[in-house]
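Notes to self, Fe2OG dioxygenase domain-containing protein:
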Amino acid sequence: MELLSNAPVHRSVPDRYVFPPDKRPALLSDDHSPDVAFPVIDLHGGRLPVSDDHRHQVAAEIIRAGKEYGFFQVVNHGVGEGVVRGFREAAAEFFAMPAEDKLPYCSYDMSKRFRLATSTSYDRGETLYWRDYIKFRCYPASNENARHWPSKPANFTPSLIEYSAAVHELAQTILCLIAEGLGLDGGFFAGDLSGGDTHMSVNYYPPCPDPTVTMGLLAHCDRHLLTVLSQADVAGLQARHGDRWLLVHPIPGAFVVNFGHQMEIVTNGVLASAEHRAVTNSAVARMSVATHVHPTDGCRIRPASEMVHEAMNPAKYREFAFSEFMEAYDAADASREEVLQSFKICHD
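result:
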């Protein structure tokens, strides 16, 4: 496997990374819109009271952001700066290791609990995406998960355990606020809906000699319930808003939060999964750390009864096991419309 991170400098974009003109990204300058910005929500250190007007206001802000964009950023979230920096530094060290040290982890086998690869597992045609990535199960730090993590760099495992536990707690807080904002019981998303192993994707995008001809990551929606992403201070994430691609501008210390397909289905379309992609830049490397909250494989997914009204808003999706959705997502190569079509209910 030829990894981009194995080359110290890329002088030109190899032909296999060059996309046809109609599939290339718009210039980032086209996406700097003064009138559209993804909401930034203050979580007040993650210590919101159990019940008061302030908490209800934050929950309402999350729902408004979810309905309008499917994306928002959270600040003052309670995850320590040192915790974030510690794992980001360990992950960067992993990609910087010599090729021979990374070789044992290289695989496109999606069943492996820790794997390193390049481009993407989906849409693997002749054109490659400009990224390397590691995917693995990060929480809980059970022996079954941890024994697959790399032994080098030495700080990888301890920093990962600290980071993933803190982000797990943050994700549960956000899910509780989402439930309350929708008028559901605060613990609605607890249990099987968020109780699967939490997965992590660490994406590494080296500096690209010509960002106008290639892409970092294909346009897609996430398959699971919720994503909490650290993108640090380097731009590159774009989210679709209507017929435009908007840059999610980095905010110091913030996490980007977006909904996956399961959130859209459970809320009967009230909170939609937003399509997003990654573009490259020529100046510096970019690394994003995405934490994905999953249902359990056997979890039965269906629109919440509170979100269904036979006359006003009938159920849009049939009931299914999450494992069935995972298979359909892989078969559809992450295509938003194709995978959702498999589970939609037709109303004549």
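- The helical segments are 53-68, 81-96, 99-102, 143-146, 156-181, 261-266, 322-331, 336-341.
- The radius of gyration is 20 Å.
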